[in-house]
Amino acid sequence: MTHDHYEMRFAGSGGQGMMLMGDIMAEAAGGLDDKEIVLTRSYGPEARGGACRSELIIDTRPIDYPTVRHPDFVLAMSQEAADTYCKDVSSQGIFLVDPGFVHDIPKTSGQVYAIPLTELAESVTGNTLAANVVAIGAIAALTKVESLSIVKSAVLDHFKPKLRPLNEKAYDAGVAAAQALIK
Amino acid sequence: MAKKYEIMTGNEACTRAALAAGMHFFAGYPITPATEIAELASELLPQAGGTYMQMEDELASIAAVIGASAAGVKAMTATSGPGVSLMQENLGYAIMAEIPLVLVDCMRQGPCQGVATVPAQGDIMQARWGTNGDHPIIAIAPNSVGEMYRETIRAFNLAETYRNPVYILSDAMLAHMSERVQIPDPATYEVVSRKRPSCPPSAYKAYADDGTGIPPMASFGDGYRWFVTGMIHDDTGFPVTNNPDRTSYLVKRLHKKIENNLSRIERYEEYRTDDADILLVSAGIVSRSAKAAIDDIRREGIKAGLFRPITVWPFPEARLAALCQGVQKVITCEMNEGQIYHIVREVAGKTPVGMINQNNGVILSADTILAGLREEL
């Protein structure tokens, strides 16, 4: 599956790594693959907590309007994010939530996937902070917007050698969890 | 895999390009959405042998930049609309004393402190007329991170060539968004430095026209005597009061530096203007929405095109005037109450001019422009 134009939104709370997810996916598409990207970020003044989101547009051609209009993919890592952004998901789109934070999954016209990203991160790596990398794995598998190997390279490139094994485990766990749901 | 591009924000592109253009000094005071420029300059400038100074406010920031430039180095400051307001007095001083500098304005919603984190285009007229008296100014409004890189280098070149402050008009969106940038090979672009005096110090007159309209500039500490003032002055720089001829001469020479070199300074982009019946005029980040709207409305059979001034000051009037002759209507798209609309009306002749604007901190979208076009036509 290829996409000429793909819009993604990663939404959660400060400290969950939403900004980093945008950076890594942008690097995969715009750095390692040869696509145009626009990455925007929105966050409050808090270092942790507070609504934040990162939005990425990937296109095979130059991107005019730089803001996400009709997201093909939305990740919600908080109830607030789920309630706010469920409405925008396009009918062909994918809505991924972490049921550890989103207890009440709102109705959306897209396809809903619930993967316990934070719980998986804890069980596979012993560190809940890796939830965003679990999410990247799940996103790569669900959206197929970039190949699994390119996204994995972008993840590994991002971290210092010391942290790569942990993040590789997290990434693989995300891929596996998503693939189990697709089947 | 070798990477052809680097991904960076508009603020990062601006800072890195400034260094590529030879910036040696930065002074600033933090303000959203411009702070990252100061932050990165504080990291990179010392590594490059330059100087970063955090000042106590914006007045001091531009004053320090003027001092550094007078001492011979390329200098920049970065702020947002409220900070630009504070800088206006000294900006006028730099124009009068012909001190090259680059002033980055990451525009945010106004008036006053407005909304710190959201984009706007409310400083287009502040950039033109913010400081008192008639004066020349150059202002560049990039619309992408890649263009931010290239035009920041050009901003320094223009400041150095014409001994005049140059604005870069960014905005909260462009400042913080990331795109791919192809870092140009330094062999492929020009880096210009101010013209230095060739005469001995004893013969130097700091403001004597050498025939080009742009006097050679000595540096403080080089041994050349140079009086710097914001007053109308003679060729040595000393104030001249109550001399209508000298006053007229100096004001005209300052303006002519820009007016006589429009073709070297002005830059614009045209998109699908060849067969256009409707001409949109839009600058900066909003021009991207306008482009998308043009593609959309062309599918409905309406031939629309875009004129995008990259230098908003001097505004590329001659080219726009020529384009206006061939279209049925001109419509500006902007995030303010009509600052581009003003100038477009001046040059459109008999062609009617409309406006699609939004002034709420939200990027004027392609959908809104499209709806506006359907209403206007």
Structure notes:
Chain A: InterPro entries: 2-oxoglutarate_synth_KorC (IPR052554), Pyrv/ketoisovalerate_OxRed_cat (IPR019752), Pyrv_flavodox_OxRed_cen (IPR002869). Chain A: Residues 14-175 form the Pyruvate/ketoisovalerate oxidoreductase catalytic domain. Chain A: Keywords: Oxidoreductase. Chain A: It holds the Pfam family POR. The complex is a heterodimer of chains A (183) and B (377). Chain A is α/β, with parallel strands linked by helices and 183 residues long. Chain A has 6 helices and 6 strands; from the N terminus they run E-H-E-E-E-H-E-E-H-H-H-H. Chain A has helices at 18-32, 79-85, 117-125, 131-143, 148-158, 164-182; strands at residues 5-13, 36-43, 51-59, 73-76, 94-97, 111-114. In chain A, a hairpin with a 7-residue loop joins strand 2 (36-43) and strand 3. The two termini of chain A are 16 Å apart. Chain B has helices at residues 10-20, 35-47, 58-70, 81-97, 124-129, 145-162, 172-176, 244-259, 262-265, 286-298, 317-325, 339-347, 366-376; strands spanning 6-9, 23-28, 51-54, 74-79, 101-109, 115-119, 138-140, 165-171, 178-181, 268-271, 278-281, 304-309, 311-313, 329-334, 353-357. In chain B, helix 1 (10-20) packs parallel to helix 6 and helix 3 packs parallel to helix 4 (81-97). The relative contact order of chain B is 0.12. The chains are: A alpha/beta (183), B alpha/beta (377). The A-B interface holds A 23, 26-27, 30-32, 34, 36-41, 63-67, 69, 153 and B 1, 3-7, 173, 176-180, 285, 288-289, 291-292, 295, 363, 365-367. Strand 2 (36-43) of chain A pairs antiparallel with strand 9 (178-181) of chain B, so a sheet runs across the interface.
